């Protein structure tokens, strides 16, 4: 595992004492690629180490703090706009991921940057929700007919929306995994167990919030922000450490939804990157999932160790690209049966070849 300078600084901020500018350059570049500069600032500030940082990297840290504060205000405003736009629709509106962290005022929201707002509504309300959004300035970000059909038929969300004036991006989900996935969680239960913020605005309960974050990373195979998402998992575990019965409820929920292996990988990777104490003692042994021998676990560890390191050349080894590609294919395999997956991948590959410039 070669997670790099950023990982070392987040794991033990005291390691930055005495760093030269070359080490800081690597760290800031890695943090920028992961959208974690503000998170690094918070870790150093908590240890009283900001004064030990040389002026050039400290300027990046301070700028990131200002940016994330503005971002949090902008997201809060965007949530209000979405809530107002959907007021005529008689449905709960569930905020997901970064927007949920901001709305629920979780500690990790104070350093979190993200590019879009994600919401979830009952599937039977999607038509009403889409019409309400269109009336209030949102429209699909892509005009591609195949992509539009693919989203609506095979995924757990509508095509992404962009606002005509503010340029903000919005994803509208009806579940946390596609209906073609095996397994596909019980969306009505997610909605029923959600926590009320105000009026019809909701966030997932703590167990489901962690489960969704783990699913996004370890089931879907998206690693562009893999290290940031792993930091999210660590921070969520810290947030919910004292939540009543969190560990047994998470284990039970993971088994009920058929996601025990996903949560097992999430807990194992969190412990491998950040130490056993990052995982509550009741979950330290992971959630048993069965069906994987020692050799299989060793292979998955090797793949995740490389894919979850900051996506930067200073953190890569000779096998990092292959590991990410293997997990990308695994994510598609888990989301779609072969009869749908193979034609879809073939079409995407052909379209990429057609659109690529000739050399």
SSE inventory with pairings:
Layout: H1 4-11, H2 21-34, H3 37-46, H4 55-85, E1 93-96, H5 97-103, E2 116-120, H6 126-135, E3 138-140, H7 145-154, E4 161-163, E5 169-173, H8 187-192, E6 195-198, E7 201-203, H9 206-218, H10 226-239, H11 246-256, H12 260-274, H13 294-307, H14 320-335, H15 338-355
Parallel strand pairs: 1-7, 2-5
Antiparallel strand pairs: 1-2, 3-4, 4-5, 6-7
Helix pairs in contact: 1-2, 2-4, 3-4, 9-10, 9-11, 9-12, 10-12, 11-12, 12-13, 13-14
Round the Cα radius of gyration to an integer and report it. Answer: 21 Å
Mean pLDDT equals 90
Shape: globular
Coarse structural class: alpha/beta
Order of strands, widest sheet: 3-4-5-2-1-7-6
Between the first and last Cα atoms, what is the distance in angstroms? Answer: 36 Å
Structure, described:
With 359 residues, the chain is α/β, with parallel strands linked by helices. 55% of the residues lie in helices and 8% in strands. It has helices at residues 4-11, 21-34, 37-46, 55-85, 97-103, 126-135, 145-154, 187-192, 206-218, 226-239, 246-256, 260-274, 294-307, 320-335, 338-355, and strands spanning 93-96, 116-120, 138-140, 161-163, 169-173, 195-198, 201-203. A 7-stranded mixed β-sheet has the order 3-4-5-2-1-7-6. A hairpin with a 5-residue loop joins strand 4 (161-163) and strand 5 (169-173). The radius of gyration is 21 Å and the shape is globular.
